[in-house]
Structures are given as structure tokens and as C-alpha cells.
Design goal:
Shape: elongated
Number of helices: 11
Largest sheet: 7 strands, mixed
Structural class: alpha+beta
Family: Belongs to the class-II aminoacyl-tRNA synthetase family. Phe-tRNA synthetase alpha subunit type 1 subfamily.
Distance between the termini: 81 Å
Number of strands: 10
Strand content: 15-25%
Helix content: 25-40%
Protein name: Phenylalanine--tRNA ligase alpha subunit
Order of helices and strands: HHHHHEEHEEHEEHEEEHEHH
CATH superfamily of the largest domain: Bira Bifunctional Protein, Domain 2
CATH architecture of the largest domain: 2-Layer Sandwich
Binding site for Mg(2+): 256
Main location: cytoplasm
Strand order of the largest sheet: 1-5-6-10-9-8-7
EC number: 6.1.1.20
């Protein structure tokens, strides 16, 4: 009887075992190949009476599934055993391992931090997702300032009743200084590095995110002369002892007076070249004396304390230091570009 044959094969299949991959293949051929046991039963199935076909068809499908599952399980078991039994040849030559380097922006950021830490600045890392109050309001930005526009800043949520509660990706690390002044009393000497975001079209000269390092010093009797000397020391440490600086009047909402700082071109030595547009000078940062409004907003008495602040783009410094002329290279993860900085590490 065909039913008895199916029951007999089911018992055989459930008791199958194999020692290696060759045994598994022999079992597959015996039961599942075109000339195997199960296909022979299927051939005999054509001669079964019509009223018996439904029940026998179900049993044949069960047999085929049981054989397939059992043989697959044996194959997996054998492969696992063979893999585990492979011995490790300790005399074999090691695979070549390519050692990476620190990213050029990390190199420059660390160098900037090291210079200012040696001048007494401590590090503070603020939130990348911040509120309007710390990023704009406490820093004296006017209510209609362009930076508060969706075309300039990435807003996450906006509060129509209170703009200070708007949530955004910080557009500068100056907001970190507001956070720090809120929770610390003078004297304050802090450095705030971090990633910032602005709604810019991505090109060789601009990106929607970049890195900044900003510094703040608040104490009694702090003057613009103190700021100039600190920045001169930084410029000479970063770009060489012969580096000169100049300060040009500028405007920032959170400093007064404000200035842009240029350094003498390190390529032509100040004589004029294509890099410095034949001026002999290259702009690297903005700075100024902290506006009394900012101090008062952070509960620091502007009649007693004064301070200075400065901020620079890490990419800008890296461009000057390594001659990188396309900002996009810093974030493309191209190992060919990154390998060029192995000697700088």
C-alpha cells in the first residue's frame, strides 16, 4: 500500500543523520532528487483512486516537507561543526590592516583647543538642538533679524505665541556661552567647540553644517587690548611666529565694539598672491567686547564686569593650514582625501 510506504519513509527521514557534507548530499539525492524515493511515490500517486487522492496528497506533502527540513537541518549542523573544528594557524601571515588617521577637522580643532587651554580656557559643550532664547534672544538679536528666518536657520518647531520657545539646530556656538554664563559666575574663561547648522546651498565654499570654536572671557577690567593680545598669541601659535594680525571694524549683535581679524597670508608672507586676493591678508575670525545686554540677560552686572568673545570656523582654519579649497571634501568620507593627512597626525 502507498500509505504504508509513506509512513515508512517518514520514520526513516526522522531518524536521518550525517557526519559530513558528503553524507548530507547523498541523503538529498536518495530522497529529494528526480530519481529519489519521494518522486517515486509521486509517480505512483497518479494510479491512486480518485477518492483517495486528497488524503494521500496531504501525506505526500508532509513527507516532502519533513525530508527537506531534516536535510537542511543536517546541512546546517555539519557546516557549523566543520567551522568550529577549523584550527587557527598561528604561523600564518597576518592580514594587512589599514590604520586610519584622525580627520583633518579633528586635528585642527584639537590644535585650537590646545592653544587656548594653555592660556587658561576651559571647555564647555552645549546642546546642538537649542531654543531661540539662548541662540538669539539673550545674544541681542533683533526680533526681525534675518538669522531668525527659515531661509537661514533650521527650525524644528516654532511657537507662534513666544519666539523664545522656538526649537532649532543651533546656528552658532555663541548660544553655548549664554548657557554657561547663566550657570556660572565671573571670572569666566571658556571655549565652546561644536557643530553648527545653517540653511545654506551646499557648494565648494558653503555647507549646511560646519564646525566652530568660540571663546569667552568675562571678569573685572577686561579690555580690548586683552582680546588683541590673546588673538595675536593664537595666530602665531597656529600659523607661525612671524604671523601678523589686523583688526577691522565690523558688526555683531552680541559684541560692541566688534571686529573681523585678518592674518598675514602664510603663503606669500603678506606680499600678495591669488590665495589672499593680492591683499596680503586673510580673514580668519570675528571678535569683540561682549555687549552689556548679553551680560545683563545672564544676570551678570555689566557695570562691574566686562568681557570679550571671539569665534572661528574650524573648516576655515583647516583650509588655510592645509590648502583645502572645497568644503565638501571634509564630509565625503573619501579615504583618498583623508590619507593625505597621515603625516599631520
Amino acid at each position: 500500500m502507498l500509505t504504508d510506504k509513506i509512513d515508512e519513509l517518514l520514520k526513516e527521514v526522522s531518524a536521518l543523520s550525517a557526519k559530513n557534507a558528503e553524507d548530507v548530499e547523498q541523503l538529498r539525492l536518495k530522497y529529494l532528487s528526480k530519481k529519489g524515493e519521494i518522486n517515486a511515490i509521486i509517480a505512483d500517486f497518479r494510479n491512486v483512486a480518485k477518492e483517495e487522492k486528497r488524503e494521500l496528497g496531504i501525506k505526500i506533502n508532509e513527507l516532502k516537507k519533513a525530508a527537506t527540513d531534516k536535510i537542511n537541518a543536517l546541512r546546517e549542523q555539519v557546516e557549523t561543526t566543520e567551522t568550529a573544528s577549523e584550527s587557527l594557524d598561528l604561523t600564518r601571515t597576518a592580514y594587512p590592516v589599514d590604520l586610519g588617521t584622525r580627520h583633518p577637522l579633528t586635528l585642527v580643532r584639537n590644535e585650537i583647543i590646545d592653544i587656548f587651554q594653555r592660556m587658561g580656557f576651559t571647555l564647555y559643550n552645549g546642546p546642538e538642538v537649542d531654543d531661540d532664547k539662548h541662540v538669539f534672544t539673550m545674544l541681542n538679536f533683533a526680533a526681525d533679524h534675518p538669522a531668525r528666518d527659515m531661509q537661514d536657520t533650521f527650525f524644528i518647531s516654532q511657537n507662534p505665541n513666544d519666539v523664545t520657545k522656538n526649537v532649532l539646530l543651533r546656528s552658532h556656538t555663541s548660544g553655548d556661552e549664554a548657557h554657561y554664563m547663566e550657570t556660572h559666575e565671573p571670572p569666566i574663561r571658556v571655549l565652546c567647540p561644536g557643530r553648527v547648522y545653517r540653511n545654506e546651498a551646499i557648494s565648494a565654499r558653503a555647507h549646511c553644517f560646519f564646525h566652530q570654536v568660540e571663546g569667552l572671557y568675562v571678569d573685572k577690567g577686561v579690555s580690548f587690548t586683552d582680546l588683541k593680545q590673546v588673538l595675536l598669541t593664537f595666530a602665531r601659535e597656529m600659523f607661525g611666529a612671524d604671523t601678523k594680525i589686523r583688526l577691522r571694524p565690523s558688526f555683531f549683535p552680541f559684541t560692541e565694539p566688534s571686529a573681523e581679524m585678518d592674518i598675514s597670508c602664510s603663503i606669500c608672507g603678506g606680499k600678495g598672491c591669488n590665495f589672499c586676493k593680492h591683499t596680503g591678508w586673510v580673514e580668519i575670525l570675528g571678535c569683540g567686547m561682549v555687549d552689556p545686554h548679553d551680560l545683563a540677560a545672564c544676570n551678570i552686572d555689566p557695570e562691574v564686569y566686562t568681557g570679550y568673545a571671539f569665534g572661528m570656523g574650524v573648516e576655515r582654519i583647516a583650509n588655510l593650514k592645509y590648502g583645502v579649497n572645497d568644503l565638501r571634501l571634509f564630509s565625503e568620507n573619501d579615504t583618498r582625501f583623508l590619507e593625505e593627512f597621515q603625516s599631520a597626525y
